[in-house]
Amino acid sequence: MFEETFAAELATRIGSRVEVATDNNLIEGILSTVTAELVLVIDISSGYNDNAKLYISLDAINFVRFPQAA
After folding, report:
1. Pairwise CA distance, residues 23 & 1, whole Å
2. Which pLDDT belongs to residue 43?
3. How far apart are CA 63 and CA 21, in angstroms?
4. Measuring CA to CA, which residue among 23, 27, 51 is closest to residue 39?
């Protein structure tokens, strides 16, 4: 039940800069897509003109933060 609410809230923020923390990684990028099971973040910080697409399972996410622009 919580995952449905979590996914619905994330879906309202598609297009925002995001930091997603899992047990092993801190992923920074643009929130692109949210489904009932997966989140797609476009990593724009790699520095190599090829933006990496990172699919993250909702149940693997520890927290999400939306940093403010300076």
Report:
1. 22
2. 86
3. 5
4. 27
Show the tokens assigned to 16.
């925002």
Residue-wise DSSP of the chain:
-HHHHHHHHHHTTTTSEEEEE-SS-EEEEEEEEE-SSEEEEEE--SSSSSPEEEEEEGGG--EEE-PPP-
Instruction: Tell me which residue has tokens 């939306």.
Output: 66
**Lookup result for tokens 């809230």:** 9
Taking the CB of residue 48, how many other CB atoms lie within 10 A of it? Answer: 6
Question: In angstroms, rounded to a whole number, what is the distance separating the alpha carbons of residues 8 and 11?
Answer: 5
Tens of pLDDT, residues 6-64: 999 999 999 999 999 999 999 999 999 999 999 999 987 756 667 789 999 999 999 99
pLDDT of residue 69: 60
